[in-house]
Amino acid sequence: MRAPRRHLSVIAALGSAALLLGACSTATAPAPAINSAPADSAAIPAGLEKFYTQELDWASCGGVLLCTELTVPMDYDDPSGKTMTLALNKRPGGKNAAGSLLVNPGGPGASGLETVREAVPNMFGQDLQRGFDVVGFDPRGVGSSTPVTCEQPAEQDAGRAEQFDPGSDAGIEEMRRDSAEYAALCAERTGDALGFVDTISAARDMDVIRSALGDKTLNYLGYSYGTSLGANYAQLFPQNVGRMVLDGALDPTLGNNEITMGQALGFENEIRAYMQDCLDSGDCPFSGELEDALDQLRELFAEVEAEPLVGSDGRSVPIIDFVNGFIVPLYDNSTWPMLTEALRNVMAGNVDDIQYFADLTAGRESDGSYTGNGTAAFSAINCLDYPMDADIPTMRAEAQELAQAAPTIGKYLAYGAVGCQDWKHPATGNPAPLTAEGAAPIVVIGTTGDPATPYAWSQALAEQLSSASLVTYEGHGHTAYGRSNDCIANAVESYFLDGTVPADGLTC
C-alpha cells in the first residue's frame, strides 16, 4: 500500500465540484475576550479591531460572481504579527436579500470558492439563492487562500504511484522515510503558515468574515468537515450565531482512530448496499449471492494490490489510487451505475474510469496540472487537529481491528498516523464535546446511509449542541441538502428564509 501521507482520501462530488472530506478534524478552544459594542452590532474580540473593520473590495470574477480578499492574523494570540489572506467569492442575491449565507463544502481541503462557482446553482433552491448573498471562502491553508504548498505536479504524480508494504517493519520504515521527506517539503515550501491552519483558527476567521460582510450574525451552511467549522464557531461565538445548518455532521468528541473506524464501517455498509443494488439490477459484473459478489470484489482489490494497473496514458494505478477512485461514486447512490460501468471496464482491462475518479479526488486535470491543494491541506489540517500515535504495535493492532470490522475497505484506512509522525508542528486539537450554550437554534442533518460521516455522528452532535434540532434523511450517500428530496430542501430553505426551525426528530 502507498505511503499514508497520501493514504485513502474521502471525497464528495457535489454538483460539478469535487469536495475533499476525508478523515475529518475536530478541536475546541476557549472563547476569545471581547470588547463591548453597540447593541446593533456584534462585539469585536480585543486586539482584532483592524481585522474586523476591514472594508471588502468586491470585483467581478466571471458571470454574476464577485470576488475579494480578506486579511486575518496568522496567529490569533499574536495579532500584531504575520497575517494570512483569505479568498472569498459570492453570488449576489435579489434586491431584498437578507444578508449573507456563508458556505463550506468540507474536507479539510475543499474549496468554498469552487462550491459557490460551480455547485450552488444546481444544489440551492432559487428562493434561497435570491434570499441571500451566497458567499464562499477557501479556509486558511486551502486553495486560493494562503495555501499549504508541498509538491509540484510531477512530484504529486510520482507520490501517487508509490506503493509500500506496511506488513513488514521494513515497509513501515520506508513509509516513515517517505512521509518525513514530504513533511519537510511542506514545511520548507509553506513556511510559518503551516503551523496555523488548524480548525480553531479557521473558525475564528469566519467571525472576521462575518464582520467584514457587515452581518451582525453568521448565517452558515456547512457540509461534512464544514460542520466542524460551524460547531466550533458556535462554541467560540454563540452570541453571533444566526441561522446555521450542519449537514453530514462530525462528532467532536471522537479522536482520529474512532473517526477512521467509523468511516471504515460506513463505507463497508455502503459497499454492501451498492453491491446488492448491482446484483438486483441484472447487469452486474459480479455474480452469485451478496457474499459471493463481495468476495469477488475483494479478490479484485487483492489483484490490484499485487500488481498495479496501468491507465491508457501510461500512469500506474496502485491499490490506494484504485480504492480512492472506487469510493467516489459511493457518495451518491445516483452515481452507482457509473461505478458498475467502471468496474466492468476494469474487468475488461481498462482502468481509465477508476483512474478518472482517483484524479478527481486529487484535483488532477487531464493536462497533468493539479487544481487546488486538497491533498496537502488535508494532511496539514489533520496533523494539527489530531494527536496520533505512530507506535508500530499500536498501528498494527488498529489495522487488524479495521480489517476485521470492515473486510473490504478497512485495511486501506490503516497506518495514517505515520503521515503526521515527522510533521514540523505538533497537534493542537483536543477532541471534546461542543455545547454552544446561548446560540440561536442550529439544525443538524444526518443521512442514515452516509458512508463518510455516519448517522450516529449527527445524532451525537445534535445531542451535544444545546440548541440543536436533528433532521434525518433516510437514504444513501453523503450529506443531504442539494441531493436528496423535497422534504430536506423545504426544511433547510424554510429555516434560512423564514426562520422556521424544523421539529427535532423530523424524518425525511
Automatic annotation (TrEMBL):
Keywords annotated in UniProt: Hydrolase, Signal
UniProt region (Disordered), positions on chain: 143-166
Keyword match NAD: no
The Peptidase S33 tripeptidyl aminopeptidase-like C-terminal domain, residue ranges: 407-508
A Pfam family this chain is assigned to: Abhydrolase_4
Signal sequence, start to end: 1-29
Top-level taxon of origin: Bacteria
Record-stated family: Belongs to the peptidase S33 family.
Family annotation (PANTHER family): 2-SUCCINYL-6-HYDROXY-2,4-CYCLOHEXADIENE-1-CARBOXYLATE SYNTHASE (PTHR43248), AB HYDROLASE-1 DOMAIN-CONTAINING PROTEIN (PTHR43248:SF30)
Protein name: Pimeloyl-ACP methyl ester carboxylesterase
Naturally occurring in which organism (per UniProt): Paeniglutamicibacter sulfureus
